[in-house]
Amino acid sequence: MKKMLLSLAITAALAGCGGGETLEDVKNDTPPVIPTATVYFDPANGDISVPNDLLMSGTKDGTINIPNELDEDGVSVPRAAYADPSMALGALDGWSSQVPYKIDLVMPSFVSDDVPEGVSLDAASAAAPGAVRIFEVIMGASLTDAECSQAPAGTACKLIGELTFGVDFITQASGEAVAVIPLKPFKAGSSYVNVLTTDLKDSLGRSIEPSSTYGLVKQEAPLITEAQLGLQGAVKSYEKVVTSGGAISKDEIIYSAAMTIQSVGPVLNTIKSMLAVSRQNPALDSPVVNIPESDTITTVQDKLVELERPAPAIFAGVQYQKGNVFLPMYLSTPTGTDNADLADTYWQGMCSSPVAVLNQQAADQALVDAGKENEVDPTMFDVGPYEPLCQGLSEGRLHDYPKIDTTRHLTKYNPIPKKQTLADVPVQVTKPYLPVLNTILEQQNKPALTMPEGGWPVVILQHGITSQKEDMLALTAALSMQGFATVAIDHPVHGERGINVDGKDDDGKYDFNATKGKGSVLAYMNLESLLVARDNLRQSAADLLGLRFGLNFTDDTSLNSSDVSFIGHSLGSIVAPAFVAQANTPLDSQVDGLFSVNTVALASGGGGIASFLLESASFGPFVQGSVLKSAGAAESAEFEAYREGPAVANCGESADTQASVSCGYAEYMTSLTVAGETTKIANIQGVMSQFSFAAQSALDSGDPTNYAAAIKALGTPVYMNVVVGGKDGNKPDQVIPPTTVNNPIAGSLPLANLMGLQGVTESQGPTEDGMSYLVKFTQGHHGTVLDPRADASAGATAEGSAAATSEMQMQIATFLKSRGLFLQVTNSDVVTE
């Protein structure tokens, strides 16, 4: 096609050369054609920028189609192959709601002798309103809009509205690309059309032009092949819908591409629904928190002594108990003990994707229509053991056809997860021990406590990454003094929930355990398989739903299961929004109270996980070093050689992989900077950018940023504290940064903002309704809410850290005590605006 058009153009030019002119005359009289900058877009050759819904066309199961994901027979790669970061996108039903992305351009390296340096993107135009416009639309084959349900999939059907530059997103030049940076998350499950306009200029002031392919499909005349017509139909639908509002004309458009944001809540919502009916359905597991009675009293002080932790006298006023709860595990058990053996343990659907079923039915019908009925395999629709559950839990929409959809990716079309095992999960329980506690309260001139008639209100405690439930005991004295009982479980692959592949725990050691001193953080924060990392997050949230539900059926009458609050620290704060959003979203008036969480306190959390991990002072060098090691780039081997060679002089030889990679990476990057290796540094930054895009896309359905709007809409009272530092040399949180450089909606403070928290520096209330607050601390460190000791790496002083711990714990306890109606701030020296 291109050769034909080129020939026609040359012939026409020559035919117009009359009057005895020679070809040389024409060349001399014709102004030189200056090569132009164009948009990078030629799908037939794989030249497209992502996100782009063209990669969802022809999907077999409702997920993104990644190159090389399917073989020539349409069979997917094995589940373990999705450990590759780029391949992981093929398990998703859409794109990330929050990660910045780029739309690539093609800049001519040579324009003319007068412009020997070539052209580049005009940065001012790239950062100006109007160069990039984003429209929210409804796509064809919609599950939610009747008018668009019959429109062809992959085409735009209806305009919802246009996003606002500077409010919803900004743009900027990024090499030979324009970067789009969200200021708010895109709506989960919604679709948008990205549009580049003639306002986007090159360094000569000329508008960027469409690619030749886009120019062809944009024209009115129909193209030839089925693939060309399909692409033309999609592009023309985008332009038709975005121009239907009258705010932009087709002549202004040089590029348009749809992107559908992945679903976020359907799978966890399905888990909640299964719990809700589990008491009536014997095929489903119904958790019950069991707390055995004991003739002797063990206090938290006793437990802290056993753990060789500081054990102040106040903890003698807190009773310690141990129970258990059986929870469904949707993560499968690895078959080996290497980290690579975790690659295929991520969640799997119980049922066949209805998209895959429709595709199989269409393929069979095509054989029938072609007179090849004998080639139809009737066993494809033989049902499997989960057929009754698939039918019952989906109101007849889903089936278990074992031969159809072997990967069973969980999507909005296929949201029922398959239970792999039933885990016996230890439960830590504390309660006020009145004989001792009231004596202490009397010594402090405070009123004595009595257990309420309905039992002690309960606070669910959730610990942080590399931690364990016992670390949350540090909060129990302050909570007991306010009349709270607490319950806590370990995150998956933490503490007592480490994994032994053979199922035995004879030596007290684990094959996989993310708790510090028991194993590697990579067992949970799995950089080798991002889908496993995502589903560790979702399993944490699902476990909390199961624990909350199971409290209702405990035999311990001293616990009031109808009055439940939540405290999360670090990772506990990260999974909290997903848990609380699901718990408090109405399902049915008969069961809503069995899940409700009335007040929430979060310490040292954050959203935009991929971004904040890469920029974390504590984890960042390890994450970046681990990514570079496995990237296969030219710098990967060089880094490994440097880590094992020159870096040893400053890092030492360590059997601790995390310490070795962290220090070695920092040393390697310093050496490149000193040597002026700008190209290598740029290559490494490119690797990190690509990883961030893939990682955040994979993690999105477990990321708190995507549940923040639901928390705000529900009105659940939320308190959050963040260490921003700034006093006496105290650094900001060194684990989860308050903000990040490369993503304006990642970190702690953006998450607080998205949840609608009000920043305060003094006491608030009492108010008529529960309120939500953010308190920024100038002193302390990531773990200060639990540990008053100073952390030298955070620049924290002993006095400042102790003061911050006392203030944090007091604020949390009084906020929960009032159910969000009152927040007490007593030490203004450690807080700031």
Describe this structure in words.
The chain is 30% helix and 14% strand. Strands 9, 10, 11, 12, 13, 14, 15, 16, 17, 18 and 19 form an 11-stranded mixed beta sheet that branches. Strands 1-2-6-5 form a 4-stranded antiparallel beta sheet. A 4-stranded antiparallel beta sheet has the order 4-3-7-8, with helices on one face. Helix 7 packs parallel to helix 13 and helix 16 crosses helix 19. The chain is of the alpha/beta class. It has 23 helices and 19 strands. The longest helix is centred in the middle third of the chain and has 22 residues, at 530-551. Among the domains are: 1-30; 37-51 and 94-260, no CATH class; 349-393, no CATH class; 612-702, no CATH class; 720-833, no CATH class. Strand 14 (559-569), helix 14 and strand 15 form a beta-alpha-beta unit.
Q: Helix segment count?
A: 23
Query: Would you count the extended β strands for me?
Result: 19
Q: Which residue ranges are poorly predicted, with pLDDT under 50 across at least 5 consecutive positions?
A: 1-28
Indicate the structural class: alpha/beta
Compute the separation of the termini in Å. 63 Å
Q: What is the helix content? A: 25-40%
- The 3D shape can be described as globular
| Overall pLDDT metric | 93
Main pleated-sheet profile:
11 strands, mixed
Strand content: 5-15%
